[in-house]
Amino acid sequence: xxxxxxxxxxxxxxxxxxxxxxxxxxxxxxxxxxxxxxxxxxxxxxxxxxxxxxxxxxxxxxxxxxxxxxxxxxxxxxxxxxxxxxxxxxxxxxxxxxxxxxxxxxxxxxxxxxxxxxxxxxxxxxxxxxxxxxxxxxxxxxxxxxxxxxxxxxxxxxxxxxxxxxxxxxxxxxxxxxxxxxxxxxxxxxxxxxxxxxxxxxxxxxxxxxxxxxxxxxxxxxxxxxxxxxxxxxxxxxxxxxxxxxxxxxxxxxxxxxxxxxxxxxxxxxxxxxxxxxxxxxxxxxxxxxxx
Length: 292
Description:
alpha/beta, Rossmann fold, 10 strands, 10-stranded mixed sheet
């Protein structure tokens, strides 16, 4: 299993970010994580606007950071009383993405809320979350739901690559007692593809059956290699659109966590996220862990 010794939760004091802080505390207590902190960033754009308004005053960050620290400390006091877990408060000023990435280098898991609470901030926070997923090289947990217990039903997307195997390791680390539902989605070649390749419908059907059989054999071999899974676990190969099938299957097993691997990319391509990952992030109703 993966080793987790530190967690950093990001908060903008919205409801979604409060869920992220609470989940971080719950994980730290459940897993015995050594270091856990919560970070709030005082956005540089806000400070620059106030400097222009007040004639370029250079001491503006200090009262804003002090106020943010007080709010953060009150939040963490509430979390400590509820969970028994004490989080280290961190406050930085600057551009949110840069500040978060800089702080996250010292932590093994980054935890963020999926959306901000306020309507006018939802797009901005969603954009920041996506940017973090593109740029950060360690696992990122997006929290959508309130915390009432540890993860109990975890679905892991498997494509038989090293990335999906690492995703499975992280699933077992974050939810050691959970039922694991391993899924591979077989993206069915379309009749249009057959026409383009001048393959008959009968030939396409035969190709589908052969490929599906090989995929099921690979899944069975993977499960055998993994060894015994927790009670109520399952594995399956599903034919269909990858993103839609993942979301449908997660709903069917009532997963409270969906784990998906993000393939590593060279620096010139890190601004890209796979379309499947993006759709899962946008449409999932449960928490999502993205592992590179």
